[in-house]
Amino acid sequence: xxxxxxxxxxxxxxxxxxxxxxxxxxxxxxxxxxxxxxxxxxxxxxxxxxxxxxxxxxxxxxxxxxxxxxxxxxxxxxxxxxxxxxxxxxxxxxxxxxxxxxxxxxxxxxxxxxxxxxxxxxxxxxxxxxxxxxxxxxxxxxxxxxxxxxxxxxxxxxxxxxxxxxxxxxxxxxxxxxxxxxxxxxxxxxxxxxxxxxxxxxxxxxxxxxxxxxxxxxxxxxxxxxxxxxxxxxxxxxxxxxxxxxxxxxxxxxxxxxxxxxxxxxxxxxxxxxxxxxxxxxxxxxxxxxxxxxxxxxxxxxxxxxxxxxxxxxxxxxxxxxxxxxxxxxxxxxxxxxxxxxxxxxxxxxxxxxxxxxxxxxxxxxxxxxxxxxxxxxxxxxxxxxxxxxxxxxxxxxxxxxxxxxxxxxxxxxxxxxxxxxxxxxxxxxxxxxxxxxxxxxxxxxxxxxxxxxxxxxxxxxxxxxxxxxxxxxxxxxxxxxxxxxxxxxxxxxxxxxxxxxxxxxxxxxxxxxxxxxxxxxxxxxxxxxxxxxxxxxxxxxxxxxxxxxxxxxxxxxxxxxxxxxxxxxxxxxxxx
Length: 577
What we know:
By secondary structure, this protein is an alpha/beta fold. The strands form 2 sheets. It has a 6-stranded mixed beta sheet with strand order 5-4-3-6-8-7, with helices on both faces. Helix 17 crosses helix 18. The protein is elongated and about 100 Å long.
């Protein structure tokens, strides 16, 4: 049990079945949110940055004829660009998270199987595959699942770099492994800067389980290799910041939302430990993350629905058992090193997010890989203990109670996972009427058209292409599903004194912008098709705004209906007779 346990034929059958389950769970509720690039503006921005990077423009936003920096660092857009180039323009960005999610489940199984037993690996992989937050984000264009995958890759490389085989290898081979770990750690950091806390996990595991070659010369070489590898992607990101933001250390978040992320903002604060945070968290970060790590987060929501977000309570108990069993095994240095690495990273990541303005269990998902592995190891160890107790005729009452507790935890775990699977499988798959309508329009609308819309221009640019010209109906963002966050922020920046270019809008205020209306009239006179795309309002106040704007448009143009479904109404603007 001291070395790496190679998987057998039965292991491959198990992992194949779990991967099929992962795919089914991710697709069970349909692809509507994924193809709509929800949640906005995050998914929309990632998809746009990835496509623009693949097309040679850089990890930026481009809509309305102008280019703007992204709020996000370029790590995840790099992954999206890779798949875009690999599969071509038809590749949907949401499939990236699904592919990397399935690879994450595979990686968890192999990491656990290499250190523990088949049951450990099976339980660990099932816990990840049936984790609600993992299932949800595996079907979205978000960076959480890809970051988890990169973290698991880093853990695998760490295991290789510290293996007995590598300790007997030449120096160049050992340093190459540490360089690869540094590259993965640095790449994880440019996906999300808070992932630099992965280095805390590395330091902790080296301190708690020292390397076999621990002389000063070797430690300096290891540190240098990791530092060089870490610096390569970070230096590239700093260069991108210089190009797109004007400074290596500038932030895209501060560019778009200076009042929150600028020098005067309070992105991180001690007040968020127990005070309210966004979105709609009255409990504070400590309570949310504490209950999540112990599988008790369902208590904070609907009392009639005790579902969890990360893993169930029984899994949390088994994780504690797993940590204790592994740390009490002095001959299992590789397993202990893996646990300390994961705990250090998870602890630092969670601790950092406890001070953050926003709360989301998905933030700590990359570091939670260690919990799934520990839970698998604990479940296997506990269930090996039960038969020993039952066979022992001299068993004590305490041992009987412990064995009974394991059986109860097994039942609770089975019920929790089965319930989650049943809920997911019973969901009715939903398609996107919006995306279907836009894809239909793309095949029928002339390429030289001008499109006026209250739908986000960046979204239209992605689904209708850059050949057409886009004009905003207005610069409002009432927070509805398809309204334009980025256009609204640009006009707010301009109102605050920023002098950069902005896409035109027909209604910058309550009155029609005469210059924009005249340019549309000139285009119509020049036989250029002009279309009006309207996403229906979700609130009465926004409906009143749209009615007023359409009334004013009708005074200058004739509005002819073209098509309509539940998500979008299409009109053509012609000269008023």
